[in-house]
Amino acid sequence: MAPTKDIKKELEALRDSYRRDEVSALIGAGFSKNVCGDYPSWNELLQDMVAELYKFEIESNFKINRNIRRHGYRSFESYEEAKVKEIIEREGYLNIVSKYIERKGCREAIEIYIEDRIPYIDEDKEELVFLKKGVTVGITPETPNFLLLNSPKNGSRSFWS
């Protein structure tokens, strides 16, 4: 479907609505990953969760398939990675997360799981810290603005000119 109006006019109208505090931004999954490749994709984020939740299924299928030499995987790790992708496809993200919360017995478990796997801003060192990967990324003037949104040190920021 072709746009019905000039895109410049649409963007100007959006900017004007933003200035009147009439806009909320809903950023979809994958936005962070596109800007900073160190963020996990949904599959990467759920890898450990699926491996834990479906451990018996993954291990027993590996043993069965290993005995009859059906799969061409050289290691359990490569088999597990492929099986996790298959399970995510089969079960869906929301069902997996719901099952994880049910298994752990409280909603906070998913919050802790996610917080352990996404970066946070260390304001003293001015770095993004990725605990799971053991990676830090210095914050510089070139750091994308969206990464600074969660930093109370920087206060409220406007990204419209």
Order of helices and strands: HHHHHHHEEE
In round numbers, the mean pLDDT is 76
For the largest beta sheet, what order do the strands appear in spatially? 1-2-3
* Sheet of most strands: 3 strands, antiparallel
Low-pLDDT stretches are 145-161
Structural class: mainly alpha
Q: Share of helix among residues?
A: 40-55%
Report the total helices: 7
Give the termini separation. Answer: 30 Å
What is the alpha-carbon Rg in Å? 21 Å
Keywords:
single chain; 161 residues; mainly alpha; 2 domains; three-stranded antiparallel beta sheet; 7 helices
Note down, in words, how this protein is organized.
The chain is mainly alpha-helical and 161 residues long. It folds into two domains: 38-117, no CATH class; 119-153, no CATH class. The protein is built from seven helices and three strands, in the order αααααααβββ. It has helices at 7-19, 31-35, 42-53, 55-68, 76-91, 93-104, 108-115; strands spanning 120-122, 127-130, 135-138. α3 crosses α5 (76-91) and α3 (42-53) packs across α6 (93-104).
